[in-house]
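User: Could you go from structure to sequence for me? I need the amino acid at each position, not a summary. Structure tokens:
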């Protein structure tokens, strides 16, 4: 499960919106993103450090072939489609995104 480039989405979801959001992620979104050109795999991690307001914390990690693959994804229509699909969850969701090259790996 090593990829040379990672795209990381950390998000917090309210307890009231968690079930619906996780269903969308598990039944559609993560597989759709992972099927984009240049994406190799995806994983979601439930973090132990919830927000002070009780919202639950998660991180999604996507492994990619390269930075260029991620930039092509950003320039495609896919992010606009996913933003539209995410609309019903927005009042229950906070996100931050980051990405970078894998510099060191053991195993």
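Assistant: Here is the amino acid at each position, in order:
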């Amino acid at each position: 499960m090593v990829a040379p480039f990672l795209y990381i989405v950390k998000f917090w979801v309210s307890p009231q919106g968690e079930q619906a959001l996780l269903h969308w992620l598990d039944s559609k979104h993560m597989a759709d993103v992972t099927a984009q050109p240049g994406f190799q795999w995806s994983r979601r991690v439930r973090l132990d450090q919830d927000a002070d307001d009780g919202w639950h914390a998660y991180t999604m990690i996507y492994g990619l072939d390269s930075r260029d693959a991620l930039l092509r994804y950003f320039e495609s229509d896919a992010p606009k489609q996913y933003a539209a699909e995410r609309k019903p969850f927005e009042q229950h969701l906070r996100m931050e995104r980051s990405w970078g090259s894998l510099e060191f790996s053991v195993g």
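One structural detail worth keeping in mind: Residues 5-101 form a domain with the Alpha-Beta Plaits fold (CATH 3.30.70.100).
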